[in-house]
Amino acid sequence: MRKLIAYCGLDCETCDAYLATMHDDQPLREKTAKLWAELNHAPILPEHIICEGCRMDGRKTVYCESLCEIRQCAMKKGLATCGGCPSLEQCPAVGAILAHDPGALKNLRE
Fold first, then answer.
1. How much of the chain, in percent, has pLDDT values that exceed 90?
2. Residue 1's pLDDT is what?
C-alpha cells in the first residue's frame, strides 16, 4: 500500500492541503481554507492548511492531527489503514468517506 493513502482510504497526494504544502502554494492554501471553512462552518485560515500526509511523520492540519475520529480510531487499534479493520463495512465514519469517494475503498483494498 502506498504511504500517502490516509487511514480512511483517501489519497493524500490529491488533497489540496497536501499539494499546497508540498508546492508552497499560497493561493491554493487560501482557496482551500475558504472552501473548508464554508463546508465545516469553522474558522479555517490559510495558515491551517499544512499537511505532509495522514500516515506520515510531519505536519498535519489541525483536523487531521487531532480531530479526525477515523485517524484516531485506526491509530488506537494499531491499524495501517481502516482496510485492516473487521468493522470496516459497518463503520459509519468511514462509510461517509466511501460514499463521497468510492476510490477510497479501492485504496483500502489494495
1. 76
2. 54
Taking 3-state DSSP, the helix, strand and coil percentages for the chain, each rounded to the nearest 5, stand at 60, 0, 40
Q: Can you tell me the distance from the alpha carbon of 86 to that of 31, in angstroms, rounded to the nearest whole number?
A: 37
What is the Cα–Cα distance from 77 to 29, expressed in whole angstroms?
32
Is residue 61 packed enough to be buried (19+ CB in 10 Å), middle (13-18) or exposed (0-12)? buried
What's this model's pTM, rounded to 2 decimal places? Answer: 0.84
Q: What is the pLDDT of residues 89-108, one digit of tens each?
A: 899 999 989 998 989 999 99
Q: What's the rounded Cα separation, in Å, for the pair 5 and 74?
A: 13
Q: Any idea which residue has 471553512 for its cell?
A: 37
What is the C-alpha separation between 4 and 15, in angstroms, rounded?
10
